[in-house]
């Protein structure tokens, strides 16, 4: 097909317009965030500021006019009343919420459908196009809040979506992605079922300790290189997403983003090791399933492929091993730097975003000290992480209304949902489409604020509150395990898909991934996990 000069000019003009829109919308959202934060101390309510009654007491005390006990009691009663009203207001179902969830539904629809339509397939593969759609729908969500709730709500929404959730999420993924990209596993081994299963098993075992992102970035390219001659390899990448990019990260907060959010809410760092039995049962079952599956697929390969695979064997070597030290540094950042708690051996608490700044510093050290040849050998670029960043900024903003609907319905939900198996399936099901990190947080809060039956084993959180252990187990397993159900369930899923497609693997569509692989393979395993551990 010949492209005329006029078509080239039109495409260039469209791309320029898209860039302008993305820049302007980004600056607009940033301005709204800054204005919202600067105005958060004014007005009758604020998540960060004080109520008028509190400010009045502070001003009187500063002037030396100490309130009398009776006055102080009345003022305290007013504060309690205001707090109750604020809590009730925050738990109120948003007006016209059916309209508010439309941008989120449209974004999911774009992710699922646009790659399948011939007219939009090529256009969607550009990260600029993905970011354009994400920004347009994010603006739609902000317009909903502005019109229905009021301008004052914008700052709170953006602070929650971006500063509290998106920034820690994307910087953790970015750090693990870049640092692990400086570790190159050279050599070549036969693309046999035993070797492929070993790749998946190693990734599964290390994912909890260097993160699902780190393990995925470390092993996906060597796995693709090993299988480059094979015709039937899509199932290998899919099972890699299941085992390495998701279920493998169950044992530590560094392993998977939802567990990281749980740690930020006060779950002890090493508590997730209690999930080791569920982790190993799911992992062993899936590894056995994969070995049988790949053995069948390997027999379907042409004889020349099997011979060529065995003839080009080279010993494996690790280059850039110093980056394992920087990965340990990221783990230390997650484990020890929390603004809510003092630093170990110090009496002062870290400032906001100190953890993220330290991670960025480790990324800089990795880039400076790692030979460029190592990253070139890895075919390392930023395309995959930019794709995740572009899509997930839209997801984190547009899903605020659906999350508010869940939160507002919490009381009704907890009267119906009070069993671990229910939390497992509902948390997991929503994690598949809402992203598992914020979904985990919503159901964590439901479990924390719900009424536990007498005799329920409770886990004391670092902040002083508690949560039922059986519900926390179910929520953690549901969020981590079922993040594997879709491409958007967990951040690394998209990165692995993008890298595989760059390597020439024809990955399934959004719905193809779900109906051809996730449901037939994962759902029976999750049913078994439910029967063994959650009933």
SSE map:
Layout: H1 5-38, H2 52-62, H3 69-90, H4 97-100, H5 102-113, H6 118-124, H7 127-149, H8 152-180, E1 184-188, H9 193-226, H10 234-243, H11 257-264, H12 276-300, H13 303-311, E2 314-319, H14 323-336, H15 354-369, H16 372-377, H17 383-398, H18 400-408, H19 410-416, H20 420-434, H21 436-449, E3 458-460, E4 466-468, H22 469-482, H23 491-502, H24 510-534
Helix pairs in contact: 1-7, 1-8, 5-7, 5-17, 7-8, 7-17, 8-9, 8-14, 8-15, 8-17, 9-10, 9-12, 9-23, 10-12, 11-21, 12-24, 14-15, 17-23, 20-21, 20-22, 21-22
Plain-language structure description:
There is one protein chain. The protein is mostly helical. It folds into two domains: 46 residues, no CATH class; 372 residues, no CATH class. 70% of the residues lie in helices and 3% in strands. The strands form two sheets. A two-stranded antiparallel sheet has the order 1-2. Helix 20 packs parallel to helix 22.
Features:
two-stranded antiparallel ribbon, single chain, 24 helices, 535 residues, 2 domains, mainly alpha, 70% helix, globular
In short:
By secondary structure, this protein is mainly α.
User: What form results from the Cα inertia axes?
Assistant: globular
Global structural class: mainly alpha
Q: What can be said about the biggest beta sheet?
A: 2 strands, antiparallel
**H and E string:** HHHHHHHHEHHHHHEHHHHHHHHEEHHH
